[in-house]
Specification:
By secondary structure, the protein is mostly beta strands. The chain is 9% helix and 30% strand. It starts with 25 loop residues before the first strand and ends in an 8-residue tail after the last helix. The N terminus is likely disordered.
C-alpha cells in the first residue's frame, strides 16, 4: 500500500507600504508645441521643485510674472556663447518679475533677459518679504532698459520688517533708470550678495545710479564691475566689496577695451553699418564705454524694437 504524504507550504503574507512623493517636473513654455504658452499659467500649476523651461524667444505676458512663493526654477535658454536668450519683455507698460511671497533661495531665475519693464518700484524685478533672511537666486541674467518711476530701475529689494537677501550671480545691469534712486538696484533693509556682476550705464535722478542702499541694508559685492553709472556708482552702506578689473568689454582679449572689441560685438549681431567709424554707435565721434553701453542696452531686443 502506497503511502502519500501531504505537505502544506505556508507562505507568510508580506505587506508592502509604499510611500509616495511628488517628483519634480519640467514644464515647458513657448509659443507653439509646449505645455503652456504663458509663464504665469505654468507657475499656477507648478509645485515646489519644478522647472519651468523657456525657449529662445520673446515672452510678453501683459502683466508681471509672479512666482507665488513657490520654490521653482524659471530656466531660460542660452545662445552658443552661454548668454541668456529667453527674453521677458515688459513692453514699457508693467513690471516684469516679482517675488512678494517670501521666496527663498530655492526660487531660481536663470538665463533670462529682463527688459523694458516699467513700474513704480522695481521696473525689472520687485523683491519684498515679511520673513527674515529670504530671497531668491538669480544666475546669468541681463536686466536692460527697465524703468522705475521711484526706486530700483533694474531690481528693487525691500522690506520694512525683515531682511531680503537675494543671491545674484553673473548678472549684468545695463541702461536701467530710476526716477529717484537706484538706477540698477535699490536695497532697503536688505542683505543681497552680488557675485561677478556688472553695472553699466544705469542712471538715477538722485543717488545710486548703479546701486542705492538704504536703512539697515548690508550689501556684499564680490568681483563686481561698475562703469558709467550716473550720478554715481553706488550710495549707502557696503559690508564688503571686491572689484573686478576696470577693463570691460575686452572681447578680443588684448587687455584693452577699444574699437576692435565694439566692432567684434557688432559683427556678431550683424549690426555694423558703413561709415567712417562704424564702432561709434552713439555718433559722438568717440569709441568708448558709451558705445558698449548702447550695445548692451539693445541686447536681446527683437529687430522690430
Amino acid at each position: 500500500m502506497m503511502m502519500y504524504r501531504i505537505c502544506t507550504v505556508v507562505v507568510p503574507a508580506v505587506f508592502f507600504f509604499l510611500s509616495c512623493r511628488a517628483v519634480a517636473e519640467t514644464i515647458t513654455v513657448c509659443a507653439v508645441g509646449c505645455d503652456h504658452t504663458s509663464i504665469n499659467e505654468a507657475i499656477d500649476v507648478a509645485n515646489n521643485g519644478d522647472i519651468i523651461q523657456l525657449s529662445a524667444e520673446s515672452y510678453q505676458e501683459g502683466t508681471v510674472i509672479d512666482t507665488q512663493g513657490k520654490a521653482i526654477t524659471l530656466l531660460g535658454a542660452t545662445d552658443k556663447e552661454g548668454r541668456p536668450n529667453s527674453r521677458l519683455n515688459g513692453q514699457n507698460t508693467h513690471g516684469v518679475l516679482q517675488c512678494v511671497n517670501n521666496e527663498g533661495p530655492g526660487t531660481v531665475f536663470e538665463n533670462l533677459v529682463v527688459q523694458r519693464g516699467f513700474s513704480y518700484n522695481g521696473g525689472g524685478m520687485n523683491i519684498s518679504s515679511t520673513s527674515p533672511s529670504t530671497g531668491p537666486t538669480l544666475r546669468n541674467c541681463l536686466f536692460a532698459n527697465n524703468t522705475a518711476t521711484w526706486r530700483g530701475g533694474g531690481i528693487h529689494n525691500a522690506s520694512l520688517s525683515a531682511n531680503v537677501a537675494p543671491s545674484v550671480i553673473n548678472c549684468t545691469f545695463a541702461h536701467n533708470h530710476a526716477g529717484n534712486t537706484g538706477g540698477g538696484m535699490t536695497n532697503i533693509n536688505s542683505s543681497p550678495t552680488l557675485t561677478n556682476c556688472t553695472f553699466l550705464g544705469n542712471t538715477a535722478e538722485n543717488d545710486g545710479g548703479g546701486i542705492d542702499n538704504m536703512f539697515e541694508t548690508i550689501l556684499t559685492l564680490i568681483n563686481c564691475r561698475f562703469e558709467e553709472n550716473l550720478p554715481n556708482d553706488f550710495d549707502g552702506m557696503i559690508a564688503s566689496a571686491t572689484f573686478a578689473p576696470t577693463v570691460t568689454g575686452d572681447i578680443d582679449g588684448d587687455g584693452d577695451y577699444d574699437e576692435d572689441d565694439v566692432r567684434l560685438a557688432m559683427a556678431e549681431f550683424s549690426i555694423i553699418e558703413a561709415g567712417p567709424c562704424p564702432s561709434d554707435i552713439n555718433g559722438d565721434g568717440q569709441v568708448d564705454g558709451q558705445d558698449l553701453a548702447a550695445l548692451l542696452a539693445a541686447w536681446g531686443l527683437p529687430c522690430d524694437g
